[in-house]
Structure formats: structure tokens, C-alpha cells
Write a structure and sequence with these properties.
Elements (H helix, E strand, L loop, with lengths): L3 H14 L6 E6 L1 H12 L4 E7 L20 E5 H9 L12 H13 L11 E5 L1 H9 L15 E6 L7 H10 L5 E6 L12 H15 L2
Parallel strand pairs: 1-2, 2-5, 5-6
Antiparallel strand pairs: 3-4
Helix pairs in contact: 1-2
Amino acid sequence: MDDVIPQLRRVVAAARARNSDRPIALVAHSWGGSVAARFAGMYPQDVKALVLFAPFVTRALGAKPAVAAAHPSHYPLTLWAQYRRFIEDVPRGQPQVLSEAHFQAWGAAYLAADPGAVERVPLSVITPFGPLADIGALWSGQQLYDPSLIVAPTLTIRGEWDSLFADADAGRLLAGLGSRDKADIKIEHATHLMHLESQRTVLHNRVNAFLERTMK
């Protein structure tokens, strides 16, 4: 996260420079949502509205920080592991919400992101370890961002089957936000990867409605 924040600040500065220096709407997902939350707290003058789609939050409050184990800077992530991750939160007996055709298209683009992917057995993409390190720190009780510093109107949004940003996580984050304008939306029959699932249009509509109200 320490490496990414300066990169995000450069992107935001470029976006503002192209738009008469107007503050931006920051929309982010998963670990990126945690990065966006930290950015919004550090640079409130830049963010007019914030959408956190299933961000990672601090768990095990009061616990001692875990001792970081030695790990490589990157690791291979297979397409099969991604598929398992995409479907694992759907309850038994429920129809899958991820289209096989959409996953095949996504999978082809995923493997194309790493020129060396097709040379590995099994097929895999070399992936930075940093986000996993941040998630481990957050779930060990460390506070990598302070929600009370976030003053922009904020929407948290998630799927009802998301185990990574569950009801307790959403409630704790919402209660800690410094913003006076804040809301939480839970969309049924969706997981952490809702943007690739059948309920993605509901996700788009709810986010757009929030931004249309807050960005006027």
C-alpha cells in the first residue's frame, strides 16, 4: 500500500489537471478499496465521492500484529486457482452466478497480461505479493488506514455472499467513517466478484445513482 499510494496520487493529479482541477469520484474494489480508503483519508481535498466495493478492513481488533513470514515479492497464480476463487462463495444448491463464457473471455485476457504465462505448467500469471501482505496485516488487527479521516460522501457496496467483506466488516467500517453522508448496500445473489457476475448491472446502477447524487 505504501508503494501504491504515490502512484494513485499521480493518477488523481493527472485526472484533475484534465478536468479544470475538479475533485474526483474514487471507485475501487477489494484490496484496491482499502488503498482508496487510505488515499481519501490522506488527501480529502482530492476526493468528492468515494465508492468502496467490498474493501478489506481491519479484523481482530486489539490483536497483536502477526509477525510477517518471509515471502517472495511475486508468486504464480493459476487460472484454475482464479476460477476456484470466483465460485467458492456461492452457497451449495444455488446456481452459479458467473457465466462460463464470460470467465473464458476473462481468463484469456488474464493470461495475456503476462507474456510468460503460456510457458508455465500449469498456466499462471506472476502476481505481486504486496496485496496479500496488506490483507494479512489488516486481518491481524493492524490499521493500515483510518476511516475517521474519510470525510467525502462514501458508499460501501457488496454481495450478500461475500465472505471477504461481510456484514460485520461493513458495519464496523461504516461506524468508523468520518463522513456524514454514508451508506451501505448489499446486493443479493452476488459474491466478492460481483462485477463479473449476473448481478453486475445492479452493481453499476446502484453506484451510478450514488455518484449522480454526490457529484453534482
